[in-house]
Amino acid sequence: MDQLDRINGASNSFEGWGGEDDDLWQRIQMIGMKVVKPDKIKGQFYEGNFYHSRDKNPNRKKLLNRPNRKSLMLNDGLRQVNYTLESRVNYNTFVWLLLNI
Predict the structure, then answer these.
(1) What domain range includes position 29?
(2) With 77 labelled, which of 20, 21, 68, 93 sits at a CA distance of 20 to 30 A?
């Protein structure tokens, strides 16, 4: 969780599809961390059968190009959400968190 805390999690500003993964990448780069991608076999992840909207976020480019990104990162993310950690499971390549929000 250290790394997630350092980037203040993911932005709460994104809706729909598009841009949130780019924003997360930018947050990681801003604090000098590296993204290491595992090979295709180790990097596979099954997310289950759930519905998510494929409607593109019309504001995604505007959100990604906001000025003062680093200060925004500190004020838009995990620390601005009220939640309770219900359980945590550490795996070799990721951590699974169950949150009550």
Answers:
(1) 2-100
(2) 93
Type of residue numbered 88: R
With b for 16 or more beta-carbon neighbours within 10 A and e for fewer, the 44-63 pattern comes to: eeeeeeeeeeeeebeebeeb
Question: How far apart, in whole angstroms, are the C-alpha atoms of residue 3 and residue 95?
Answer: 12
Mean pLDDT estimate for the chain: 82
Contact 62, 72 (CB under 8 A): no
pLDDT at position 50: 62
Q: How far apart are CA 2 and CA 72, in angstroms?
A: 19
Q: Taking the model in full, what pTM does it have?
A: 0.68
Q: How many domains does the chain have?
A: 1
Q: Which segments in the chain show pLDDT lower than 50?
A: none
